[in-house]
Write a structure and sequence with these properties.
The complex is a heterodimer of chains A (141) and B (188). Chain A has 141 residues and is mostly helical. Chain A contains four helices and no strands. With 188 residues, chain B is mostly helical. Chain B has a domain of 85 residues. In chain B, helix 1 runs antiparallel to helix 2. Classes of the chains: A mainly alpha (141), B mainly alpha (188).
Chain lengths: 141, 188
């Protein structure tokens, strides 16, 4: 573990800290909208980690001059991760919107968007069904 | 050297602001504030992406992450509720899960090449070909555009399919919401 190694890796670790903050929100918080926000934080941190892999020291953004007179001395950063992450951002907003639509439907069906409340209602429904089932069974016998 | 010191300084400032925003999101109860902070988080990450040379990704993140997703979340808040109720105390399990996962990920980075290493496998495999060939083959100044729309055009086509499917899903889930609400209103 020399100094060069730590300096070269510390930004990966910082991205992992951001990722884990997002994961903590998803696991620990009961509100569904907040879970989606946590998922977005996780996602953005992964994007930044990916982009940082394509960064080259002394490099610049991968765009040529408009007259296309390319100076061979200029170093360009790796454009491939940028393309992949552009696709991932758009797919991410698609999943986010689907999740939010599900939350709207859950609110409509249960009247709450808190995980605890939904569990409680599910438990009540199950208990009620169990009671009805037992009642029917005792009537039949 | 001063250039590198300046970039490091900017990176550190942006990172501390990102972490502060994320922690504020964890602690906030008001969902409106949480959604706004999520927009702030997206804009800050767009700034960080600019320092990593990914300008195309940065403006997509600013437009999509801070723009569209904030609007969608505000719409959801308008249809549901505005504040988070106090839930049961989460206990230590989530913290434990997060620490174990984080440790595993850090272990995974240990054999990665240094940040900015020009000889990293990611930068020596196909990327130099794209940079060298795209002026002659595609002739577009922006290499990211050349790859996105031409070399990997099928990826982008697939992405359109994903967005289309998600749009159909959202329409199916939401459609009839107003009608059902009106019917409920009639019953009452």
């Amino acid at each position: 573990m020399d100094w060069d190694f730590i300096v070269g890796h510390v930004n990966y670790w910082l991205f992992i800290v951001l990722m884990m903050t997002g994961l903590y929100i998803v696991v620990a918080k009961g509100n569904l909208v907040k879970k989606i926000v946590g998922l977005n934080i996780f996602q953005t941190a992964v994007f930044m980690l990916y982009i940082s892999v394509g960064k080259i020291d002394g490099g610049t953004a991968p765009i040529f001059p408009t007259d296309m007179k390319i100076d061979p001395a200029v170093v360009y950063s790796n454009p491939l991760p940028h393309v992949l992450i552009l696709t991932a951002i758009v797919v991410g907003i698609a999943t986010t919107s689907l999740g939010l639509a599900l939350i709207v439907r859950i609110r409509e069906a249960y009247g709450t968007i808190e995980e605890d409340g939904i569990y409680q209602i599910e438990k009540d429904i199950a208990a009620e069904e169990y009671r009805l089932h037992n009642e029917l069974k005792s009537r039949r016998s | 050297m001063t250039g590198i010191a300046m970039t490091t300084f900017i990176d550190i400032v942006l990172f501390s602001m990102l972490v502060a925003t994320a922690i504020a999101i964890v602690r906030m109860r008001s969902l409106f504030a949480v959604v706004m902070l999520a927009g702030v988080f997206s804009l800050l990450s767009a700034l960080l992406l600019v320092t990593l040379d990914a300008v195309d990704v940065a403006f997509t993140e600013a437009a999509v992450g801070a723009g569209i997703s904030t609007v969608l979340m505000l719409g959801t808040l308008a249809l549901t509720s505005r504040s988070e109720l106090a839930s049961r105390p989460a206990g230590l399990t989530p913290l434990l899960v997060v620490i174990v996962t984080g440790a595993a990920l850090v272990y995974g980075t240990l054999d990665m090449p240094n940040f900015g290493d020009p000889n990293a496998p990611a930068s020596t495999h196909v990327a130099p070909d794209y940079i060298a060939q795209s002026p002659a083959e595609i002739g577009v100044p922006n290499i990211v555009t050349a790859i996105l729309a031409s070399y990997r055009g099928y990826d982008t086509l697939g992405e359109t399919g994903v967005v289309f499917t998600a749009g159909i899903g959202v329409l199916l889930l939401i459609s009839g919401l107003r009608r059902r609400r009106r019917e409920e209103g009639d019953e009452e």
